[in-house]
Amino acid sequence: MERRREKNPVEDAEFSSFHARLTIYSSGGPFLDGYILSIIAIALTQITPQLHLNATWSGLVGASALIGIFIGGFLGYVTDKVGRQLMYTIDFILLIAASIAQFWIQTGWELFIIRLILGISIGADYPIATSLLAEFSPKKHRGIMLGVTLVAYYIGSTVAYIVGQLMLNIGPDAWRWMLASSAIPAIILVLLRLGTPESPRWLLQKGKRAEAEKVLKQVYGSSASLDDIIVPSAGEAETSYLKLFSPGYLKRTLYVGLFYMAAVAPLFAMLTFGPEMLTSYHLFEGASGYGAAIISFLFLIGCIPALFLVNKLGRRPMIILSFAGMTVGILLLGLFPNGPVSIILFGFVVYAIFSGGPNVMEWLAPNELFPTEVRGTAVGITTSISRFGAVFGTYLFPWGLQKFGIGPTMLVGAAVTFAGLLVCIALAPETTNKTLNAASNVRRDGFSGKHRAHS
After folding, report:
1. Using one digit for the tens of pLDDT, what is the confidence trace for 385-426?
2. What does the alpha-carbon distance between residue 126 and residue 129 come to, in Å, rounded to a whole number?
3. CATH at 361
4. How far apart are CA 368 and CA 56, in angstroms?
5. Helix residue ranges, H only, 273-355
6. Domain annotation covers residue 5
7. Is residue 10 part of a domain?
8. For position 373, what pLDDT does the model report?
Protein backbone atom coordinates (compact mmCIF):
# COMPACT_ATOMS: atom_id res chain seq x y z
CA MET A 1 0.00 0.00 0.00
CA GLU A 2 1.48 3.36 -1.01
CA ARG A 3 2.53 5.57 1.84
CA ARG A 4 0.52 8.77 2.28
CA ARG A 5 2.36 11.99 1.52
CA GLU A 6 0.25 14.37 3.57
CA LYS A 7 1.92 17.35 5.17
CA ASN A 8 2.98 16.98 8.77
CA PRO A 9 1.49 19.97 10.70
CA VAL A 10 4.63 20.13 12.86
CA GLU A 11 7.57 19.21 10.60
CA ASP A 12 6.10 21.02 7.56
CA ALA A 13 4.77 24.05 9.47
CA GLU A 14 5.32 27.55 8.17
CA PHE A 15 7.62 29.90 10.07
CA SER A 16 5.40 31.75 12.57
CA SER A 17 5.69 34.62 15.03
CA PHE A 18 6.10 31.99 17.77
CA HIS A 19 9.13 30.54 15.95
CA ALA A 20 10.58 34.03 15.52
CA ARG A 21 10.22 34.85 19.23
CA LEU A 22 11.63 31.50 20.32
CA THR A 23 14.62 31.94 18.01
CA ILE A 24 15.35 35.37 19.47
CA TYR A 25 14.95 34.22 23.08
CA SER A 26 17.07 31.10 22.49
CA SER A 27 19.77 33.26 20.91
CA GLY A 28 20.16 35.15 24.19
CA GLY A 29 22.62 32.63 25.61
CA PRO A 30 24.97 32.76 22.59
CA PHE A 31 24.71 36.58 22.52
CA LEU A 32 25.80 36.74 26.15
CA ASP A 33 28.48 34.13 25.51
CA GLY A 34 29.98 36.30 22.76
CA TYR A 35 29.60 39.42 24.89
CA ILE A 36 31.12 37.95 28.06
CA LEU A 37 34.02 36.19 26.31
CA SER A 38 34.90 39.29 24.25
CA ILE A 39 34.43 42.12 26.77
CA ILE A 40 37.18 40.55 28.88
CA ALA A 41 39.63 41.17 26.02
CA ILE A 42 39.21 44.95 26.39
CA ALA A 43 38.93 44.78 30.17
CA LEU A 44 42.24 42.91 30.45
CA THR A 45 44.10 45.93 29.11
CA GLN A 46 43.25 47.63 32.44
CA ILE A 47 42.97 44.55 34.68
CA THR A 48 46.45 43.21 33.88
CA PRO A 49 48.40 46.19 35.29
CA GLN A 50 45.95 46.89 38.13
CA LEU A 51 45.84 43.32 39.46
CA HIS A 52 49.44 42.60 38.42
CA LEU A 53 48.54 39.61 36.23
CA ASN A 54 51.36 37.73 34.50
CA ALA A 55 50.92 35.74 31.26
CA THR A 56 49.77 32.68 33.23
CA TRP A 57 47.07 34.54 35.14
CA SER A 58 46.04 36.50 32.08
CA GLY A 59 45.50 33.19 30.26
CA LEU A 60 43.60 31.73 33.22
CA VAL A 61 41.26 34.72 33.45
CA GLY A 62 40.73 34.63 29.69
CA ALA A 63 39.97 30.89 29.79
CA SER A 64 37.93 30.89 33.03
CA ALA A 65 34.52 31.30 31.36
CA LEU A 66 35.43 28.56 28.88
CA ILE A 67 36.29 26.22 31.75
CA GLY A 68 32.89 27.07 33.23
CA ILE A 69 31.18 26.28 29.92
CA PHE A 70 32.98 22.92 29.93
CA ILE A 71 31.46 22.20 33.37
CA GLY A 72 28.06 23.68 32.55
CA GLY A 73 27.74 21.52 29.45
CA PHE A 74 27.28 18.45 31.64
CA LEU A 75 24.05 20.00 32.93
CA GLY A 76 22.48 19.03 29.61
CA TYR A 77 21.66 15.77 31.37
CA VAL A 78 19.56 17.76 33.86
CA THR A 79 17.52 19.42 31.12
CA ASP A 80 16.75 15.98 29.64
CA LYS A 81 15.60 14.87 33.10
CA VAL A 82 13.57 17.84 34.39
CA GLY A 83 12.64 19.61 31.16
CA ARG A 84 13.72 22.46 28.93
CA GLN A 85 11.32 25.20 30.03
CA LEU A 86 12.16 25.15 33.77
CA MET A 87 15.92 25.44 33.22
CA TYR A 88 15.36 27.97 30.43
CA THR A 89 15.11 30.88 32.90
CA ILE A 90 16.80 29.55 36.06
CA ASP A 91 20.28 29.46 34.52
CA PHE A 92 20.15 33.17 33.69
CA ILE A 93 19.48 34.10 37.32
CA LEU A 94 22.94 32.73 38.16
CA LEU A 95 24.43 34.62 35.22
CA ILE A 96 22.96 37.94 36.38
CA ALA A 97 24.32 37.51 39.91
CA ALA A 98 27.80 36.60 38.68
CA SER A 99 27.85 39.48 36.19
CA ILE A 100 27.12 42.04 38.90
CA ALA A 101 29.61 40.44 41.32
CA GLN A 102 32.48 41.14 38.91
CA PHE A 103 32.21 44.83 39.78
CA TRP A 104 33.68 44.26 43.25
CA ILE A 105 36.51 41.79 42.63
CA GLN A 106 39.96 42.68 43.97
CA THR A 107 42.23 39.82 42.90
CA GLY A 108 42.90 37.65 39.87
CA TRP A 109 41.69 34.50 41.56
CA GLU A 110 38.38 36.16 42.53
CA LEU A 111 37.84 37.16 38.91
CA PHE A 112 38.73 33.63 37.81
CA ILE A 113 36.13 32.09 40.15
CA ILE A 114 33.32 34.48 39.23
CA ARG A 115 33.92 34.11 35.51
CA LEU A 116 34.01 30.34 36.02
CA ILE A 117 30.46 30.63 37.44
CA LEU A 118 29.46 32.80 34.47
CA GLY A 119 30.70 30.08 32.14
CA ILE A 120 28.74 27.38 33.97
CA SER A 121 25.49 29.29 33.45
CA ILE A 122 26.27 29.85 29.76
CA GLY A 123 27.28 26.21 29.26
CA ALA A 124 24.03 25.09 30.86
CA ASP A 125 21.99 27.33 28.56
CA TYR A 126 23.36 25.80 25.34
CA PRO A 127 21.65 22.40 25.68
CA ILE A 128 18.57 23.96 27.27
CA ALA A 129 17.84 26.64 24.68
CA THR A 130 19.03 24.82 21.55
CA SER A 131 17.15 21.61 22.43
CA LEU A 132 13.95 23.59 22.98
CA LEU A 133 14.46 25.47 19.72
CA ALA A 134 15.24 22.32 17.70
CA GLU A 135 12.18 20.51 19.04
CA PHE A 136 9.87 23.32 17.92
CA SER A 137 11.60 23.90 14.56
CA PRO A 138 9.97 22.76 11.27
CA LYS A 139 12.47 20.76 9.18
CA LYS A 140 12.60 23.40 6.42
CA HIS A 141 13.57 26.13 8.87
CA ARG A 142 15.62 24.17 11.42
CA GLY A 143 19.00 24.98 9.88
CA ILE A 144 18.37 28.71 9.80
CA MET A 145 16.71 28.87 13.23
CA LEU A 146 19.59 27.10 14.97
CA GLY A 147 22.15 28.89 12.81
CA VAL A 148 20.81 32.27 13.90
CA THR A 149 21.89 31.45 17.46
CA LEU A 150 25.50 31.47 16.27
CA VAL A 151 24.95 34.78 14.48
CA ALA A 152 23.84 36.07 17.88
CA TYR A 153 27.18 34.99 19.34
CA TYR A 154 29.09 37.24 16.95
CA ILE A 155 26.63 40.08 17.42
CA GLY A 156 27.35 39.84 21.15
CA SER A 157 31.09 39.71 20.49
CA THR A 158 31.03 42.70 18.14
CA VAL A 159 28.89 44.76 20.53
CA ALA A 160 31.24 43.89 23.42
CA TYR A 161 34.34 45.15 21.62
CA ILE A 162 32.65 48.41 20.68
CA VAL A 163 31.16 48.94 24.16
CA GLY A 164 34.48 48.07 25.78
CA GLN A 165 36.47 50.46 23.61
CA LEU A 166 33.99 53.28 24.31
CA MET A 167 33.94 52.59 28.05
CA LEU A 168 37.71 52.85 28.33
CA ASN A 169 37.16 56.61 28.49
CA ILE A 170 35.41 56.27 31.88
CA GLY A 171 38.73 55.92 33.66
CA PRO A 172 41.05 53.32 35.23
CA ASP A 173 38.13 51.40 36.76
CA ALA A 174 36.18 51.22 33.49
CA TRP A 175 36.81 47.46 33.39
CA ARG A 176 34.48 46.96 36.38
CA TRP A 177 31.59 48.57 34.49
CA MET A 178 32.46 46.62 31.34
CA LEU A 179 32.27 43.25 33.09
CA ALA A 180 29.13 44.05 35.08
CA SER A 181 27.34 45.35 31.96
CA SER A 182 26.43 41.79 30.85
CA ALA A 183 23.76 41.79 33.59
CA ILE A 184 21.63 44.25 31.55
CA PRO A 185 20.88 42.01 28.52
CA ALA A 186 20.60 39.01 30.86
CA ILE A 187 17.81 40.68 32.87
CA ILE A 188 15.96 41.58 29.67
CA LEU A 189 16.20 37.99 28.42
CA VAL A 190 14.91 36.48 31.65
CA LEU A 191 11.81 38.65 31.38
CA LEU A 192 11.30 37.79 27.70
CA ARG A 193 11.64 34.05 28.32
CA LEU A 194 8.88 33.94 30.94
CA GLY A 195 5.89 32.00 29.64
CA THR A 196 7.77 29.94 27.04
CA PRO A 197 6.00 26.55 26.69
CA GLU A 198 7.66 23.23 27.42
CA SER A 199 8.80 21.08 24.50
CA PRO A 200 5.94 18.75 23.46
CA ARG A 201 8.52 16.13 22.38
CA TRP A 202 10.01 16.10 25.87
CA LEU A 203 6.55 15.99 27.46
CA LEU A 204 5.52 13.06 25.26
CA GLN A 205 8.77 11.21 25.96
CA LYS A 206 8.00 11.60 29.69
CA GLY A 207 4.47 10.23 29.23
CA LYS A 208 2.72 13.60 29.69
CA ARG A 209 0.49 13.17 26.66
CA ALA A 210 -2.27 15.63 27.56
CA GLU A 211 0.20 18.45 28.21
CA ALA A 212 2.11 17.65 25.02
CA GLU A 213 -1.03 17.74 22.89
CA LYS A 214 -2.15 21.01 24.48
CA VAL A 215 1.16 22.69 23.57
CA LEU A 216 1.06 21.28 20.05
CA LYS A 217 -2.38 22.69 19.37
CA GLN A 218 -1.47 26.06 20.88
CA VAL A 219 1.60 26.40 18.65
CA TYR A 220 0.63 24.56 15.45
CA GLY A 221 -3.16 24.70 15.43
CA SER A 222 -6.01 22.25 15.97
CA SER A 223 -4.86 19.88 13.19
CA ALA A 224 -1.63 18.99 15.04
CA SER A 225 -1.60 15.78 17.08
CA LEU A 226 0.80 13.54 18.98
CA ASP A 227 1.13 11.31 15.92
CA ASP A 228 3.08 14.12 14.27
CA ILE A 229 5.95 13.94 16.78
CA ILE A 230 6.03 10.26 17.74
CA VAL A 231 8.97 9.52 20.04
CA PRO A 232 9.70 6.51 22.26
CA SER A 233 7.05 6.22 24.95
CA ALA A 234 7.81 6.90 28.59
CA GLY A 235 10.15 4.30 30.03
CA GLU A 236 11.14 2.93 26.62
CA ALA A 237 14.09 5.29 26.13
CA GLU A 238 15.59 6.76 29.28
CA THR A 239 18.11 9.58 29.50
CA SER A 240 21.62 8.14 29.76
CA TYR A 241 25.16 9.36 29.14
CA LEU A 242 26.02 5.85 27.93
CA LYS A 243 23.72 6.16 24.90
CA LEU A 244 26.05 8.79 23.44
CA PHE A 245 28.82 6.19 23.38
CA SER A 246 26.75 3.25 22.19
CA PRO A 247 27.26 1.71 18.71
CA GLY A 248 25.90 4.09 16.10
CA TYR A 249 25.81 7.17 18.30
CA LEU A 250 29.52 6.93 19.25
CA LYS A 251 30.53 8.09 15.75
CA ARG A 252 28.15 11.00 16.02
CA THR A 253 29.50 11.99 19.44
CA LEU A 254 33.07 11.88 18.16
CA TYR A 255 32.17 13.79 15.00
CA VAL A 256 30.39 16.66 16.72
CA GLY A 257 32.75 16.92 19.69
CA LEU A 258 35.94 16.83 17.60
CA PHE A 259 34.90 19.16 14.77
CA TYR A 260 33.45 21.56 17.35
CA MET A 261 36.72 21.50 19.32
CA ALA A 262 38.86 22.03 16.21
CA ALA A 263 36.71 24.99 15.18
CA VAL A 264 36.61 26.87 18.48
CA ALA A 265 40.11 26.21 19.89
CA PRO A 266 41.85 28.77 17.62
CA LEU A 267 38.77 30.96 17.19
CA PHE A 268 38.07 31.58 20.89
CA ALA A 269 41.73 32.34 21.54
CA MET A 270 41.66 34.90 18.72
CA LEU A 271 38.47 36.53 20.03
CA THR A 272 39.50 36.53 23.70
CA PHE A 273 42.89 38.09 22.96
CA GLY A 274 41.88 39.99 19.82
CA PRO A 275 43.57 43.30 20.75
CA GLU A 276 46.88 41.57 21.63
CA MET A 277 46.72 39.55 18.40
CA LEU A 278 46.15 42.64 16.26
CA THR A 279 48.95 44.48 18.05
CA SER A 280 51.28 41.59 17.15
CA TYR A 281 50.36 42.12 13.50
CA HIS A 282 50.74 45.93 13.93
CA LEU A 283 47.11 46.45 12.93
CA PHE A 284 44.70 49.04 14.39
CA GLU A 285 47.34 50.29 16.83
CA GLY A 286 45.77 52.56 19.44
CA ALA A 287 42.27 51.30 18.61
CA SER A 288 42.66 47.53 18.78
CA GLY A 289 39.19 47.21 20.34
CA TYR A 290 37.59 48.56 17.20
CA GLY A 291 39.87 46.34 15.12
CA ALA A 292 38.74 43.29 17.10
CA ALA A 293 35.12 44.40 16.54
CA ILE A 294 35.76 44.41 12.79
CA ILE A 295 37.23 40.88 12.94
CA SER A 296 34.24 39.69 14.99
CA PHE A 297 31.90 41.35 12.49
CA LEU A 298 33.59 39.36 9.70
CA PHE A 299 32.80 36.15 11.62
CA LEU A 300 29.20 37.32 11.81
CA ILE A 301 29.12 37.96 8.03
CA GLY A 302 30.55 34.47 7.46
CA CYS A 303 27.54 32.91 9.17
CA ILE A 304 25.01 34.50 6.81
CA PRO A 305 25.74 32.52 3.60
CA ALA A 306 26.11 29.36 5.72
CA LEU A 307 22.54 29.80 7.00
CA PHE A 308 21.26 29.28 3.46
CA LEU A 309 23.91 26.86 2.16
CA VAL A 310 23.24 24.43 5.02
CA ASN A 311 20.06 23.35 3.20
CA LYS A 312 21.00 24.05 -0.42
CA LEU A 313 24.53 22.65 -0.40
CA GLY A 314 23.93 20.11 2.37
CA ARG A 315 25.36 19.61 5.87
CA ARG A 316 28.32 17.41 4.91
CA PRO A 317 29.62 19.28 1.81
CA MET A 318 29.30 22.64 3.56
CA ILE A 319 31.28 21.74 6.67
CA ILE A 320 34.06 20.04 4.67
CA LEU A 321 34.40 23.03 2.34
CA SER A 322 34.35 25.40 5.31
CA PHE A 323 37.15 23.68 7.19
CA ALA A 324 39.27 23.62 4.03
CA GLY A 325 38.82 27.40 3.62
CA MET A 326 39.50 28.07 7.31
CA THR A 327 42.74 26.09 7.09
CA VAL A 328 43.95 28.21 4.18
CA GLY A 329 43.06 31.45 5.97
CA ILE A 330 44.79 30.72 9.27
CA LEU A 331 47.77 29.19 7.45
CA LEU A 332 48.34 32.53 5.70
CA LEU A 333 48.28 34.27 9.11
CA GLY A 334 50.96 31.89 10.34
CA LEU A 335 53.20 32.01 7.27
CA PHE A 336 53.19 35.81 6.88
CA PRO A 337 53.38 37.27 10.42
CA ASN A 338 55.31 40.32 9.17
CA GLY A 339 53.09 41.13 6.23
CA PRO A 340 52.42 42.40 3.74
CA VAL A 341 49.29 43.81 5.36
CA SER A 342 47.17 42.79 2.36
CA ILE A 343 47.96 39.10 2.93
CA ILE A 344 47.29 39.36 6.68
CA LEU A 345 43.92 41.00 6.07
CA PHE A 346 43.11 38.47 3.35
CA GLY A 347 43.93 35.63 5.79
CA PHE A 348 41.59 37.09 8.41
CA VAL A 349 38.79 37.53 5.86
CA VAL A 350 39.12 33.99 4.44
CA TYR A 351 39.24 32.38 7.89
CA ALA A 352 36.29 34.42 9.18
CA ILE A 353 34.06 33.90 6.13
CA PHE A 354 34.61 30.14 5.93
CA SER A 355 34.14 29.73 9.70
CA GLY A 356 30.42 30.29 9.11
CA GLY A 357 29.91 26.63 8.16
CA PRO A 358 31.19 25.07 11.40
CA ASN A 359 29.57 27.89 13.38
CA VAL A 360 26.13 27.04 12.00
CA MET A 361 26.69 23.32 12.46
CA GLU A 362 27.95 23.50 16.06
CA TRP A 363 24.43 23.46 17.48
CA LEU A 364 22.51 22.20 14.49
CA ALA A 365 24.46 18.92 14.31
CA PRO A 366 24.03 17.65 17.91
CA ASN A 367 20.36 18.66 17.99
CA GLU A 368 19.64 16.78 14.76
CA LEU A 369 21.83 13.73 15.34
CA PHE A 370 20.53 12.67 18.76
CA PRO A 371 16.98 11.73 19.89
CA THR A 372 14.77 13.58 22.36
CA GLU A 373 15.72 11.57 25.45
CA VAL A 374 19.42 12.51 25.13
CA ARG A 375 19.32 15.64 22.96
CA GLY A 376 20.16 18.05 25.78
CA THR A 377 22.79 15.64 27.11
CA ALA A 378 24.37 15.39 23.65
CA VAL A 379 24.51 19.16 23.16
CA GLY A 380 26.01 19.54 26.63
CA ILE A 381 28.63 16.81 26.25
CA THR A 382 29.76 17.88 22.77
CA THR A 383 29.92 21.50 23.96
CA SER A 384 32.08 20.36 26.89
CA ILE A 385 34.39 18.43 24.55
CA SER A 386 34.77 21.53 22.38
CA ARG A 387 35.53 23.77 25.35
CA PHE A 388 38.24 21.38 26.51
CA GLY A 389 40.18 22.39 23.39
CA ALA A 390 39.09 26.03 23.63
CA VAL A 391 40.36 26.27 27.23
CA PHE A 392 43.82 25.08 26.24
CA GLY A 393 43.87 27.28 23.15
CA THR A 394 42.86 30.39 25.09
CA TYR A 395 45.13 29.64 28.05
CA LEU A 396 48.17 28.98 25.85
CA PHE A 397 47.61 31.83 23.36
CA PRO A 398 49.22 34.65 25.41
CA TRP A 399 52.01 32.27 26.41
CA GLY A 400 52.59 31.34 22.75
CA LEU A 401 52.69 34.99 21.72
CA GLN A 402 55.24 35.74 24.41
CA LYS A 403 57.39 32.64 23.83
CA PHE A 404 57.28 32.04 20.06
CA GLY A 405 55.56 35.02 18.46
CA ILE A 406 52.39 35.33 16.40
CA GLY A 407 53.54 33.30 13.36
CA PRO A 408 54.27 29.95 15.04
CA THR A 409 51.25 30.40 17.32
CA MET A 410 48.91 30.73 14.32
CA LEU A 411 50.57 27.75 12.59
CA VAL A 412 49.53 25.60 15.57
CA GLY A 413 46.00 26.91 15.02
CA ALA A 414 46.24 25.92 11.35
CA ALA A 415 47.24 22.37 12.33
CA VAL A 416 44.23 22.11 14.67
CA THR A 417 41.92 23.40 11.93
CA PHE A 418 43.31 20.91 9.41
CA ALA A 419 42.66 18.11 11.93
CA GLY A 420 39.04 19.29 12.02
CA LEU A 421 38.89 18.97 8.22
CA LEU A 422 40.05 15.34 8.44
CA VAL A 423 37.41 14.62 11.12
CA CYS A 424 34.65 15.97 8.87
CA ILE A 425 35.85 14.01 5.83
CA ALA A 426 35.89 10.80 7.86
CA LEU A 427 32.76 11.19 10.00
CA ALA A 428 30.34 13.88 8.79
CA PRO A 429 26.86 12.45 8.02
CA GLU A 430 24.19 14.00 5.80
CA THR A 431 20.84 14.90 7.41
CA THR A 432 19.58 17.64 5.10
CA ASN A 433 15.77 17.69 4.65
CA LYS A 434 15.20 14.87 7.18
CA THR A 435 12.61 15.15 9.93
CA LEU A 436 13.98 15.40 13.46
CA ASN A 437 12.94 11.80 14.15
CA ALA A 438 14.60 10.48 10.99
CA ALA A 439 17.79 12.52 11.41
CA SER A 440 18.31 11.32 15.00
CA ASN A 441 17.56 7.64 14.33
CA VAL A 442 20.50 5.29 13.63
CA ARG A 443 21.21 1.65 13.05
CA ARG A 444 23.89 0.08 15.17
CA ASP A 445 26.25 0.00 12.21
CA GLY A 446 26.15 3.52 10.88
CA PHE A 447 24.77 6.99 10.52
CA SER A 448 21.65 6.56 8.44
CA GLY A 449 18.84 4.88 10.23
CA LYS A 450 15.51 3.80 8.84
CA HIS A 451 12.86 6.22 9.89
CA ARG A 452 9.37 5.36 10.82
CA ALA A 453 6.65 5.52 8.21
CA HIS A 454 4.98 8.44 9.93
CA SER A 455 8.23 10.50 9.93
Report:
1. 887 777 777 777 877 877 888 889 889 999 999 999 999 999
2. 6
3. 1.20.1250.20
4. 39
5. 274-280, 288-312, 315-335, 341-354
6. no
7. no
8. 79
